[in-house]
Design brief:
The structure holds two protein chains of two kinds. Chain A is 34% helix and 31% strand. By secondary structure, chain A is α/β, with parallel strands linked by helices. Chain A has two domains: 213 residues, Rossmann fold, CATH 3.40.50.300; 66 residues, Alpha-Beta Plaits (2-Layer Sandwich). In chain A, the strands form three sheets. Chain A has a six-stranded mixed sheet with strand order 6-7-8-3-9-10, sandwiched between helices. In chain A, strands 2-1-4-5 form a four-stranded antiparallel sheet, covered by helices on one side. In chain A, helix 2 crosses helix 3 and helix 2 runs parallel beside helix 4. The longest helix of chain A is centred in the middle third of the chain and has 16 residues. Chain A starts with a strand and ends with a helix. Chain B is an alpha/beta fold. Chain B has a four-stranded mixed sheet with strand order 2-1-3-4, with no helix packed on it. In chain B, helix 14 packs parallel to helix 16. The chains are: A alpha/beta, B alpha/beta. Chains A and B meet through strand 6 and helix 2 of A and helix 1, helix 7 and helix 8 of B. Chain A: This is ABC-2 type transport system ATP-binding protein. Chain A: InterPro entries: AAA+_ATPase (IPR003593), ABC_transporter-like_ATP-bd (IPR003439), ABC_transporter-like_CS (IPR017871), ABC_transporter_ATP-binding (IPR050763), DrrA1/2-like_C (IPR025302), P-loop_NTPase (IPR027417).
């Protein structure tokens, strides 16, 4: 897959600390790319470099294989983590202003704003002052302003913070929609369940270094712990006795109205072997490998790299 | 459209539409006009308040020696009334009573003024002046010279009446008014100070607002920090100019309106009367009349013409804009460095000090507009906008103004460059306690 955006060997030194230490990132076109890492890892610095808010000390950023230039700003939509609006300004006026700063003509901006305000059912807010809006409402306006100029690259830094579940799911749908329409999306967050739900690829940054790269599924598979969850009905004691001879049982309990066991297999052993072992002792309802959540991968990798 | 213009436009429109701007625009000229009109009005009220003063003179020498004025009436009472007056003073209806117990030529402190409240200075001064003149003449009389009466009359008629004239290159004479030049000097120096300070602070607030609202990162992903800073400074400059021009227009309308309504034939009273009255040591007499007539409304306009109002206004605009741009850049850097207004104190001080110094020097400037001190401070860009404006009405050589202007332009270019380096790092720093060392780091750091 072609990389839409590439960061090559980017170094950024701030007075006293190295924010980015030879970081390389490759974001495939038309995917959702998760930029993960603990607080202070250097994510925001990398995002700011991509947005040309600040420049790298060395290294380069390529967009469609060409070095980033200042006119590329119009191709990028950026929703920063620290985001806000002018409190005393009216919503519509402000959205129009921010859209024009992104090189949209006033007429185009008006037309597009009308479309999005209708879509989000917020036309009534147009003449309200921003300070009259709740935080979640302001986030909606910010989201619209971010995507209004149809950027090819979208960068969302912690987009879900401050959203209630209903609006968060609305936002999630919109992000998936944008991907469907061809946009490439960089997504920075601590919320790992949203990474699992949305991201195709991730990179994990810690202490200014990129320590993990790849497709979400591959990474979870790479960090699998050979756990198999078995749902069954039958004699639990007898079953446990059988399995314990060869493997370790991590957990047992009810699941979906049946009994269940979580079994840790040996390296290289697979589900077939477990099934062979228990097939005569119980009635099997389901059996699947349990992959680690991104949460677990995140914690594990960050701790390994301490 | 150019993005800097877009930013400038927003800064301008949001401010001009604010209620506070509209209120200040209307209130300002009213205050200016009030400064001219109210002292005259107060004086006219005071004048109607007549005061009776009783005199009990044990010597009998001084009857009729103290002149009545429009608002001070003196009444000589027989000496046996003293005790009655003392015990029932508050119901007697007198404002004060004067007790003379001995010949004042022999015993100068044998005179006392009683009242049940504080006696105003002008009452005391009036009595002193009258008696002193009388006593001086009495003293002269003791020398028993021939024709003394005529001599005294002649001596009392001596007046000094200096009129100030300006010699043109070609030897032509033009009437000038030092008083007018002084007023114009104070006025413009103070106005420059006021505008630089008020609008500089607005830049600081604006930058801080963007930073604490967290909108700044959204904006600088679309424009360069420098464009944002310039747009803001430019927009607020236009607000200041708008306000100034509206003030000039409205003040003129109000002043001429008031003149037409109330002062159609009498001269316009000026607030300078009051200042002169209390600060002069010498007896206020004919000199006062001079000054008063110099401030008659039409003559103000006439004298203002001698200080070249168009030039002065153009210079004011230049120095105001130059000074504003210089300080606004510094204010913007401070706004970018801090998170909230309370942190601003430590950085405000080094900016405020030159402004205050400039105002002090300007005060010296209108007394001696060509001294070394004033000259140098009218060259230093940090103080020149205020100090030079205090000199302009007194005819500053062209090369001095040109040099000072060039230095000011260089000054604000340097300040803008300097501030921009701090600004672009500062606006993205949240929750950091910033000191001068940190600012210096930012300054050195931001090369890209």
């Amino acid at each position: 897959m072609m990389a839409f955006l590439e960061a090559k060997d980017v170094v950024k030194q701030y007075a006293g600390h190295l924010a980015l230490d030879h970081v390389s990132v490759s974001v495939p076109e038309n995917t959702i790319f998760g930029l993960l890492g603990p607080n202070g890892a250097g994510k925001t610095t990398l995002i700011r470099i991509i947005n040309q808010i600040t420049g790298p000390d060395s290294g380069s950023i390529l967009i469609n294989n060409k070095p980033l230039k200042s006119s590329d700003i119009a191709r990028i939509g950026y929703l920063p983590e620290e985001r806000g609006l002018y409190k005393k300004m009216k919503v519509g006026e402000q959205a129009l202003y921010l859209a024009q700063l992104k090189d949209l003509s006033r007429r185009d901006a008006l037309k597009k704003l009308k479309y999005w305000f209708e879509k989000f059912e917020i036309q009534a807010w147009w003449d309200k002052k921003v300070e009259e809006l709740s935080k979640g409402m302001q986030q909606k306006v910010q989201f619209i302003v971010t995507i209004l100029h149809n950027p090819q690259l979208l960068i969302f830094d912690e987009p879900f913070s401050g959203f209630d579940p209903i609006n968060a799911s609305l936002l999630k749908d919109e992000i998936l929609n944008l991907k469907k329409e061809g946009a490439t999306i960089i997504f920075s967050t601590h919320n790992m369940s949203s990474v699992e739900a949305l991201c195709d690829h991730i990179t994990l940054i810690n202490n200014g270094k990129s320590i993990l790269n790849g497709a979400v599924h591959d990474i979870r598979y790479q960090y699998r712990e050979n756990l198999i969850k078995l749902e069954y009905s039958g004699d639990t004691e007898k079953l446990k006795e059988t399995i314990n001879k060869s493997y370790e049982i991590i957990e047992s309990g009810p699941s979906n109205g049946f009994s269940s066991l979580l079994v840790k297999m040996d390296e290289g052993n697979n589900m077939n072997q477990l099934l062979k072992l228990v097939i005569n002792d119980c009635e099997i309802h389901s059996c699947k490998e349990v992959l680690p959540g991104m949460d677990d991968v995140f914690i594990k990798v960050v701790n390994e790299n301490k | 459209m150019n993005k800097t213009i877009l930013i400038l436009q927003r800064e301008y429109l949001t401010r001009v539409r604010k209620k506070s701007f509209i209120i200040m625009t209307i209130l300002g000229p009213l205050l200016f006009a009030a400064m001219f009109v109210i002292p005259g009005w107060i004086a006219s009220i005071e004048d109607r308040d007549e005061r009776q003063i009783a005199i009990i003179d044990y010597t009998g020498l001084y009857e009729g020696r103290i002149d009545d004025t429009e608002r001070l009436k003196f009444e000589y009472l027989p000496v046996n009334k003293e005790s009655e007056l003392r015990s029932n003073f508050s119901t007697s209806g007198y404002y004060a009573f004067l007790l003379i117990e001995d010949d004042l030529l022999k015993k100068s402190d044998a005179i006392r003024l009683f009242s049940d409240g504080q006696i105003t200075m002008d009452v005391r001064d009036h009595i002193t002046r009258n008696l002193r003149e009388f006593l001086r003449n009495e003293k002269l009389r003791t020398y028993e010279m021939d024709g003394l009466h005529e001599i005294i009359a002649e001596v009392n008629d001596v007046r000094v009446n200096i009129s100030t004239l300006k010699l043109g290159e070609d030897g032509t004479e033009k009437h000038t008014s030092t008083e007018i030049a002084m007023i114009v000097s104070i006025f413009f120096a103070f106005l420059t100070y006021l505008f630089v300070f008020i609008y500089g602070t607005q830049v600081l607030r604006g930058v801080m607002e963007e930073k604490s609202n967290r909108i700044v990162e959204v904006i600088i992903s679309s424009v360069k920090p420098f464009q944002l800073m310039l747009g803001k400074i430019g927009g607020i400059a236009l607000v200041a100019l708008t306000q100034f021009l509206l003030w000039v227009a409205l003040t003129a309308i109000i002043l001429f309106g008031v003149k037409a309504l109330f002062f159609s034939d009498s001269p316009m009273p000026s607030r300078m009367d009051g200042i002169e009255m209390t600060s002069t040591e010498h007896p206020v007499g004919a000199e006062m009349e001079n000054i008063e007539s110099a401030f008659a409304f039409d003559q103000i306009m006439e004298s203002i013409n001698t200080i070249n109002p168009v030039n002065t206004l153009l210079l004011f605009l230049f120095y105001f804009i130059g000074g504003y741009l210089l300080y606004a850049a510094l204010f913007a850097a401070i706004g970018a460095a801090i998170d909230n207004e309370t942190d601003s104190q430590q950085f405000m001080l080094p900016i405020t000090i030159p402004i205050i110094i400039a105002l002090w020097v300007a005060m010296a400037g209108f007394r001696n507009p060509h001294s070394d001190l004033v000259f140098w401070f009218s060259m230093i860009p940090l103080t020149s906008p205020i100090v030079m404006m205090s000199r302009v009405p007194f005819d500053v050589p062209g090369w001095e103004i040109a040099l000072s202007m060039v230095l000011l332009v260089a000054g604000f270019l340097f300040a803008t460059w300097f501030a921009a380096r701090i600004y672009r790092t500062g606006i993205l720093m949240y929750g950091k306690k910033v000191d001068y060392k940190e600012l210096w780091k930012w300054f050195k750091y931001s090369t890209k």
